[in-house]
Amino acid sequence: MSPLISRGFGGRRRRDVDPSRIPPGQYVTDDFPVLSAGPTPSVSLDTWTFSLTGAVDEPASWSWEEFLALPSEEIRTDIHCVTKWSKLDTAWRGVSVDVLLEGVDTTADFVSAFCDGGYTTNLPLADVTDGQAWVAYEYDGEPLEPVHGGPARLLVPHLYFWKSAKWVRGIELLDHDEPGFWETNGYHNRGDPWKEQRYWSD
Amino acid sequence: MPRRAPLTWRVATVARLQPETPSATTLILDVPGWPGHLAGQHVDVRLTAEDGYEAERSYSIASAPEDPHLAITIERIDDGEVSPYLTDELRPGDPVELRGPIGGYFTWEVADGGPLLLLAGGSGLVPLMAMLRHRAAATSDAAATVLVSARSWEDVLYRDELATHDEHGVTVRYTLTRRQPPEWTGWAGRVSAEMLRELGADRPEPLRVFVCGPTGFVERVADLLVQLGRDPHAIKTERFGPTGGS
Description:
heterodimer, A: mainly beta, 2 helices, 11 strands, 4% helix, B: alpha/beta, six-stranded antiparallel sheet, globular
């Protein structure tokens, strides 16, 4: 079906934005909107851990201090939320998932990120390796705020931002795909913004 | 969520526009082939300019699943790209592209039961109104307590209709944050723990809690509810607007 022209609608294109950076159906915002399905969890850094579980030869776990001591990198990237906003050139610091998986022997093809508050999201392992995903704990040079997923969130910027799980506490490696919270609530299983994979039937 | 028809774009027709407040208008739409929805779900609306440029936005459904029309209430954002077109340019008979229903979490059906605690900030009332309308249309006797927070009395959506629900097993309370009418007997100011206690939010029995509004409102209310002892997993939230908005 060819789109219907909305009579009298001119739209407001942003002249300061390179259109090739904006996936279909998205608009650029300078704000940082917050979308969460429940209350913002509060967690003490004294008891915080990040774990690798599931189909691994040896489960691993890092305390907050140990996690901060891991090699980290700065990430400058565009992010795209399924609710239509995109934000360009966001600046993060975090640990690459490649670093976390270094030396890990696994048969897994999928991962499930699990979080404070009970949120989960599923990803193919191939979407979180090779420099495509981080566990981020700084935004714009400051500790990541709780409303945005602090103390740490997953950052998988090439997929819609619900895959970048807030308040992440670990990654479970799985031999099979296990749809997560939004993936079982009407949203797409993979969520590639460039293919506009918003909802389950897209 | 029941997986019904695929989420394809449909051409709806504007049946009527109903002004709700100085800044909000309800679009009442005929949607051929609409597969039905649950109270709390939303739709995506797509506008296309003559040169092919498209803009999409999400809007909560205001109507009950039982309603033959689909209604969405649009808060007009003065410098917005899409909402002023929907509220000011559209006329009855105009076509609008939309798809839905979307979202399988922030929903309520009569079969889910009560009691309900519905907390609305500004136009966050829209999906909660769909729940109240569903409750009434399905003649549910689930107890429901509603708190509406708005800047002023003029900004309260669906005022007259809320009064009619109030007479049928629903308790509706208001807090006006910026301006109160003379001889106002409701609450004033931002939602407080005291207000939530008066609404029974600290009682031990299970409650189905839905909070919808701007980010600042939802963060505050959800935090207060957790502090009052409510199970975080039984608090469903939907936020909109930029960080720090209220």
